[in-house]
Each structure stands twice: as structure tokens, then as C-alpha cells.
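Hypothesis: this fold can be encoded by more than one sequence.
Test: take the C-alpha cells below, design a sequence, compare later.
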């Protein structure tokens, strides 16, 4: 039974990660303010790893233009 639960947990984790892998700007901009904060970007590991590099104006959030370079 434990093995089945572990397998199901791994499947759920993998599918949730895959859902964010192809996220678009509007999906990530949860509050709709026209920018992606670090908190909003945190759901996408790839985006978070590039956040500082993409944030060219160093204001702590990504504009649509900055995000488009991801």
C-alpha cells in the first residue's frame, strides 16, 4: 500500500510541475497587475532560476517584455 501511495504522490508532483513548465505571462501574473513578482514566479522553477537575469531593470518583477526573453 505504501508503494502505491508513493507512486501516486510522484505522479501528482510530476504532473503539477509539467503544468507550470509551459506557463504564459497571464497565467503567472496572478494579481493581474501587468508584472510577475518573484512570489508569482516561484511556481515555475525554470523561471525562478532565470529571474534575476531576466529582470533587467532590477525592480523585482518581470514585465511582459522581460518575460518574453525567457
Amino acid at each position: 500500500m505504501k508503494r502505491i501511495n508513493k507512486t501516486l504522490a510522484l505522479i501528482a508532483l510530476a504532473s503539477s510541475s509539467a503544468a507550470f513548465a509551459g506557463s504564459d505571462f497571464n497565467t503567472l501574473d496572478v494579481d493581474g497587475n501587468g508584472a510577475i513578482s518573484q512570489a508569482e514566479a516561484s511556481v515555475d522553477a525554470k523561471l525562478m532560476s532565470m529571474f534575476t537575469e531576466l529582470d533587467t531593470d532590477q525592480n523585482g518583477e518581470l514585465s511582459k517584455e522581460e518575460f518574453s526573453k525567457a
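The domain at 2-67 is CATH 1.10.238 (Recoverin; domain 1). Confidence is low (pLDDT under 50) at residues 7-21.
Hypothesis status: open.
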